[in-house]
Amino acid sequence: MLRIAVQSKGRLYEDTMALLQEAGIKINSSKRTLLAEARNFPLEVLFLRDDDIPQTVASGVADIGVVGENEFVERNEQADIVRRLGFSKCRLSLAIPKSIEYPGVSWFDGKTIATSYPGILTRFMNEQGVRMNIHVIQGSVEIAPGIGLSDGIFDIVSSGATLISNNLREVEVVMQSEALLIGNKQLDADKQAILDQLLFRIQAVQTAEDKKYVLMNAPTERVKDIIDVLPGIKSPTVMPLATEGWSSIHTVLDEKRFWEIIGQLKALGAEGILVLPIEKMIL
Ligand code: PRT
Ligand code: ZN
Fold first, then answer.
1. Ligand 1 neighbourhood includes 115 CB (under 6 angstroms)
2. Does any ligand 1 atom lie closer than 6 A to the CB of residue 57?
3. Model pTM greater than 0.85?
């Protein structure tokens, strides 16, 4: 049995549970308890506050966990990054009142900065050779300058809307963050084998993301030209249609690439183009 620590509620919860579900793991989360066991995979889920996840994994109370990179780096616990998960993307930035002119990071010399991330901020300012004071607060960091608690803030930014509504301006991006799957450094062979199975499934889900299964019909004489513009992962499948002189072409494409080449495909005579989602993909 492998134990995974997952945020009990908050920004990481839904994407983490969705990832497990897409990996085919069914968890009885109807009545959410502290510990829930999967019905069809040797995994149990321990629901925690995200702040506690790095330490829980480092100590071995949980074997693996999903946590924001910002939280993992700040806590500085001994655990491995097993996989970058690509969701809950955000950045940790310095921001100051928007009316103030900003000449560069030396502006912060002697200033007070409000943050929930004193460790990351201290390391950054030491590297920059800037001496400042830190005012640690948990939550609502963005109101600190407005009420005279600090000169600037160091906080998570996603869309930037929170900064704007508090008359703040982002002046330095210190780190990028995304959800990480972290793991205990001393997993025994049984647990490692379960983790490997889980990673295999996660890989299949991640590979399928942004990929589309594309089908189209085209005059057989144009098939070669069409294949030349298709950047599929493997050679496409070509099948004759019942109508003489026409073929059906099937391939897998990055959605981004699809929009780039759709015009070319139509110009080459492709029609009846169907684009279908792919749930899982094993290369
Ligand atoms: O209760 P618990 O301690 O478990 O949760 P929490 O409140 O500490 O964390 P939570 O659920 O808010 O966030 C969990 C993780 O999501 C964070 O550690 C980040 O890794 C990631 N994440 C991604 C974010 C955001 N985007 C985000 N926008 N975490 C917080 N925010 C906040 C930010 O603090 C600011 O107040 O949203 C506001 C900024 O958003 P924008 O879009 O206005 O810029
Ligand atoms: Zn938290």
1. no
2. no
3. yes
